[in-house]
Amino acid sequence: MTETSRADVGLEEKLGQYITTDAIFADENGKSISLRDITDKPTIIAPVYLGCMHECPMLLSGLAQVLGKIELIRPGKDFQVITLSFNDKDTPAIARDKKVNYLKAIGSPFPEDAWKFLTGDAVNIKKFTDSIGFKFQRDSDHDFSHPLTLVVIGRDGKIIRYIEGTSFLPFEVTMALTEAEQGRVGFSPRKVLNYCFSYDPLKKTYVFNILKLTASFMVVFIASFFVYLMITGRKKHSDG
Length: 240
Description:
Layout: H1 3-7, E1 10-11, E2 24-26, E3 32-34, H2 35-38, E4 43-48, H3 55-67, E5 80-85, H4 92-105, E6 115-118, H5 122-132, E7 134-135, E8 137-140, E9 143-145, E10 149-153, E11 159-164, H6 170-182, H7 190-196, E12 197-200, E13 205-208, H8 210-239
Parallel strand pairs: 4-5, 5-6
Antiparallel strand pairs: 1-7, 2-3, 4-10, 8-9, 10-11, 12-13
């Protein structure tokens, strides 16, 4: 993978903007549906690829675990979940098998209709991923480099919050869904974290930006020392 293509993998947050609603996908039963028709309530969207053997199962397992712990809002009535594959080779049959496993992983009753697994062709996938700023790279027939995030949207498709990682807190998810119900864009710590960490798609991990932080510290230190010299110099001059 070239440095140019590596730079194309990442997440460009589009908080307050809207996902595309005219993209057409197939649900786990093969039924053709548009995002416009199903995003009628606050929605958690998990962009993954279903053949993944690494991070995607961890993200979906983390999502299933937190769904079983949410108590203040009700799935199917107050919110819903969509797993959307960005691999155009994934099929409804694969999605159906995955859905069964992750519904069981929740560990408590969860309405089947409240967690949809969608697959689609390359054109519609691109419409969706572009609209949420999700940039991925196909590495081989069975592997991708990609960010790890959930995207929470309001009932009108407004992007409310990104929740990155593979494990999630019930309070964090509940708050994001509450904000989505209100149409209020939530705070995302990504800009701060992105300054400290960068995603390495070759190693499929986040790397601590030690050089960037060291340089920033040196700039702040030098600037502070310069201000100190100016203040002490003025004080000595006034005392003299």
